[in-house]
Design brief:
The complex is a heterodimer of chains A (732) and B (163). Chain A has 732 residues and is α/β, with parallel strands linked by helices. Chain A contains 20 helices and 25 strands. In chain A, the strands form 4 sheets. Chain A has an 8-stranded antiparallel beta sheet with strand order 4-3-2-1-5-6-7-8, with helices on one face. In chain B, the strands form 2 sheets. Chain B has a 5-stranded mixed beta sheet with strand order 4-3-2-6-7, covered by helices on one side. A 4-stranded antiparallel beta sheet of chain B has the order 5-1-9-8. Chain B has one domain. The radius of gyration of chain B is 19 Å and the shape is elongated. Classes of the chains: A alpha/beta (732), B alpha+beta (163). Chain B: It comes from Winogradskyella bathintestinalis. Chain B: InterPro entries: DUF2271.
């Protein structure tokens, strides 16, 4: 519920202020170049700010007929306003050592003039200024609610910068860029608000007023280069110096420093008044610097990036909203809730879970079943219902997703009229500590209710994996004697981009129908162990991916032949020297870490391929342990040569095997890991890396065991190591 | 007699020439404008020469170069806005509360002690406008003194340039 409020206000504010924010951020991005271009002007003299007032002031008095002011701007450009020897009143930049003119004062370029005007008042004078001030404040609130949303999504402050689950382009970069630019955006908006308040006199008076003392006659006037105060002050600390208007004793030097202002007697050099700059004035000054980036190129660039980021957020934010609307709005039920046999209820936050549920709904309708789909918040009684299938996402720390916020209360109130079978599918991510927590809760609610009977146990799907979803569909089909076919959209491919590889070697299928294929790229090609080779068999042009083991400069694939497998059959029919067209996809998340203390590799079946490449490439001899699960001892023969060689050359430290078919009790790779739990916990504790490659089922079992180990030995959830990038996975 | 007429004609001619050349003669005055400690935007300040009939004769100085706001200096805008002659003495930024500005203005000598006035008008965005923040008669005494302002100007001080 709370999330909805944050998201709702985040969105509503963004909609209301979008046009103004658009203008302000475009002009802001343009204006970021002004301080940069100013900084690049050649008016800053090296070490010029170390010149003391006792040096520069007399120099100027000699060079010019009369001097009115000296100013040092935020770029360390020194300028002066004088009457020249020719009698002209001029203002220009000077060299602080010689007092000579360097150039005219920089005139604001018309583009910056235009952008400034638009940026602060939209050419609407006072009205515009008020609008911009208010919008700046709204943007500040948007940034705050945005931070709140990231905190909820990531699960707390500690995980603020941990890995973000990628659902789609807009969502991923909205969050990732948001994390880094929210702080600058908050600074920009707060200073913007402050500057607006200042312009409208809404701040306490911050002007300095000096107490002018009774003047006393000076008997022995000093030259100004002998004033101790002038000898002590370097240009570094100075904002401006105003010369006495006349040689009247009541006219003083006014020295404005960073933080205070002095009145200095022009004959004695005595400081007659010393006032500190008020806090409000200091804040104003800092607001101006932070808002405009004056005097610093780096901050200007940050401001530029932040402005561009705001533009991106506007695009990605609205794109996400539209997608979410589209995902949830287009429910066109063929049956009403009271005449459908299958009731599908969805708890979705971002709309992805809804898409998965709709695929299921469509498949049911295709097979002429009566189905009804709705959100969990619409839970009610269903006259004809036999089955209830719940798709539940989890948000933040195990909270109910948006469209299920009311479900628990409703569930207490509604009394089902007949017994209904149920199945719950949880969508979540291993990267969050509360994996599928909401689905677990819903499953428990139903289990404890006398009218509901379990049709299938709770099934959890990690990172919206289609493969896992398919697995569940198969289970469901099997349980209910149906044959639902889920229609997945496949990405389109460009076959022209494929590269050619020559088959160098191919083994015969072994006892498990697994075989090795060694491919050599015809043209130079960049790849590493752990990358993926995409193959598009001509039968259906549907992409299949295999993990690459890099042995010397060849690609080693380990493939299991399936009876009707299009791609595995294709590979099995290959002869040496035939040509394979395929594409290497870099998979940087699954490369061998060359800078870590220790690596544990876990694989089953053909998932060993990338690890074969990695160990034979382990030139630094990083301590490496390989756990492998196969069916029989014969299964290993295929890989034995490579593994023995790696063990001999100490590129592989230990090799542990689990055979599921060799003894009465089945032993799996996760059992091996549980036996060696000290090793695993010690590797994780020493910042070592764990890599997993193989089937999804194996991965899930292994992750569960690993979670037990880390909780038991290190008192931490596995997700902490995962967000620390100590866990690399490549499973299918 | 003829000679006298001729001489007197020459004298008149000579005198008028002399007087014409003295017409052109002008002096420079250093002028400091000290603002009060008001808060808000910088002020637009316009210094104008006012003839004995109380009409604008010449714009001597404009502080503030964003002409979007010139029309807030209403009275002067009625004079200047129609003709828009070029003003030599426009300086950059406006001056805000507590600041001072020093400028050098040129005043023809025959405007002194002849009923001409100097007018300082001030206007601040979203705040008041003062038609005669400072106004005083151009006398040889006044151009050396300090004169208090009525609005955003605390005082102005004038000093003839030495050379």
């Amino acid at each position: 519920m709370t999330i909805s409020i944050w998201r709702y206000s985040h969105l509503i504010l963004a909609v209301i202020s979008s046009l103004f924010i658009l203008i302000a951020s475009v002009t802001g991005a343009i204006l970021a170049f002004e301080p940069i271009s100013n900084q690049l002007q050649p008016f800053a003299i090296e070490d010029g700010n170390m010149v003391s007032l006792a040096e520069i002031l007399p120099t100027l008095q000699q060079n010019y007929d009369e001097v009115f002011t000296v100013e040092i701007d935020k770029n360390n450009f020194v300028s002066t306003s004088v009457i020249t020897k020719e009698g002209n009143s001029e203002t220009f930049y000077i060299n602080p050592f010689t007092g000579e003119k360097l150039g005219e004062i920089i005139k604001k370029a018309p583009i910056f003039e235009f952008a400034t005007n638009l940026h602060r008042s939209l050419f609407l004078k006072t009205t515009g200024r008020i609008l911009i001030g208010v919008v700046s404040f709204l943007l500040f609130i948007i940034a705050i609610t945005g931070i709140q949303l990231i905190l909820k999504r990531q699960g707390g402050l500690k995980r603020f910068f941990s890995k973000v689950v990628k659902e789609n382009f807009e969502q991923y970069y909205h969050v990732v860029i948001g994390r880094y630019t929210l702080i600058p955006i908050i600074i920009i908006t707060l200073t913007g608000v402050f500057l607006s308040l200042e312009k409208f006199n809404l701040l306490p008076d911050s002007k300095i007023s000096h107490n002018y003392p009774e003047p006393t006659e000076i008997d022995n006037p000093l030259e100004i280069d002998n004033f101790t105060i002038f000898q002590d002050i370097k240009l570094n600390d100075v904002t401006s110096v105003e010369f006495p208007f006349s040689d009247d004793i009541e006219d003083y030097f006014i020295i404005k420093l960073k933080g205070k202002e002095l009145l200095v007697n022009q004959f004695s050099g005595e400081v007659v008044s010393n006032q500190n700059t008020s806090f409000v004035a200091l804040i104003s000054n800092w607001s101006l610097i932070l808002h405009t980036g004056q005097g610093t190129v780096i901050w200007s660039i940050i401001l530029l990036i932040a402005s561009l980021a705001i533009l991106f957020f506007m695009y990605s934010g609205f794109a996400m909203t539209l997608k979410r609307r589209r995902a949830t709005s287009k429910i066109k039920n063929k049956f009403t809730k009271d005449n459908a046999e299958y009731i599908i209820l969805v708890g979705s936050e971002t709309g992805h879970t809804f898409n998965a549920a709709k695929l299921f709904y469509n498949a049911l309708i295709e097979t002429s079943q009566s189905a009804y789909i709705s959100v969990l918040n619409d839970y009610s009684t269903y006259n004809e219902a036999k089955q209830l299938i719940i798709f539940a996402a989890t948000y933040g720390e195990g909270e109910a997703p948006n469209s299920a916020s009311n479900f628990k209360q409703l569930f207490k109130k509604v009394n089902p009229q007949q017994n209904i079978q149920y199945a719950v599918i949880g969508f979540g991510s291993f990267m969050y500590p509360d994996y599928c927590k909401y689905a677990v809760e819903v499953d428990l609610l139903l289990r404890n209710h006398e009218k509901f009977d379990e049709n299938l146990p709770l099934f959890k799907i990690n990172n919206q994996s289609f493969e896992e979803y398919k697995l569940w569909i198969n289970q469901w089909n099997h349980q209910n004697n149906l044959d639902l076919k889920i229609q997945f959209k496949r990405p389109k491919i460009n076959l022209k981009n494929l590269k050619e590889f020559r088959v160098v070697n191919k083994t015969k299928p072994n006892i498990d129908n697994s075989f090795l294929v060694q491919l050599r790229p015809l043209k130079k090609s960049k790849f590493s162990s752990g990358d993926l080779l995409s193959v598009f068999p001509e039968v259906d042009f549907i992409e299949r991916q295999y993990s690459i083991g890099k042995i010397e400069n060849d690609i080693l694939l380990s493939i299991k032949k399936h009876e009707f497998g299009v791609c595995s059959t294709y590979f099995n029919n290959l002869k040496v020297n035939s040509i394979v067209k395929a594409k290497v996809k870099r998979n940087f998340d699954f490369h061998f870490p060359n800078t870590t203390s220790e690596v544990v590799m876990i694989a089953n079946g053909t998932g060993i391929a990338p690890f074969l490449g990695m160990v034979s490439d382990n030139a630094n001899k990083i301590k490496t342990h390989l756990f492998w699960g196969g069916r029989t001892k014969d299964s290993l023969k295929l890989y034995k040569n490579i593994i023995d060689e790696a063990l001999n050359e100490q590129k592989l430290t230990n090799f542990y095997t689990a055979y599921s078919q060799e003894q009465k009790d089945k032993i799996y790779v996760q059992d091996l890991i549980l036996e060696r739990q000290e090793l695993l916990s010690q590797v994780l504790d020493n910042n070592g890396i764990i890599m997993i490659c193989g089937s999804i089922a194996m991965q899930n079992r292994v992750l569960e065991v690993l979670n037990i180990i880390t909780t038991r030995h290190l008192n931490k959830a596995l997700s902490e190591f995962e967000s620390n990038s100590q866990l690399k996975k490549d499973c299918y | 007699m003829k000679n006298i007429k001729l001489v007197s004609l020459f004298v008149v001619l000579f005198l008028s020439l002399v007087s014409f050349s003295t017409l052109e003669e002008s002096s420079k005055y250093k002028c400091m404008i000290q603002m009060t400690n008001y808060t808000g935007e910088g002020a637009y300040v316009v210094i104008s020469l006012i003839n004995p009939d109380g009409e604008y004769e010449e714009t001597l100085y404009v502080q503030g170069d964003d002409d979007e706001w010139y029309n807030t200096v209403e009275s002067w805008w009625n004079f200047y806005g129609k003709k828009r002659q070029n003003i030599d003495a426009i300086t950059g930024a406006t001056i805000s509360g507590g600041q001072r500005a020093i400028t050098v203005i040129d005043i023809e000598d025959n405007k002194i002690d002849t009923g001409y006035k100097l007018r300082f008008e001030t206007a601040v965005e979203n705040q008041e406008y003062y038609t005669t923040d400072v106004e005083f008669e151009l006398t040889s005494d006044n151009v050396k003194t300090k004169i208090e302002g009525q609005g955003f100007i605390r005082y102005i001080r004038m000093l003839p340039q030495n050379n």
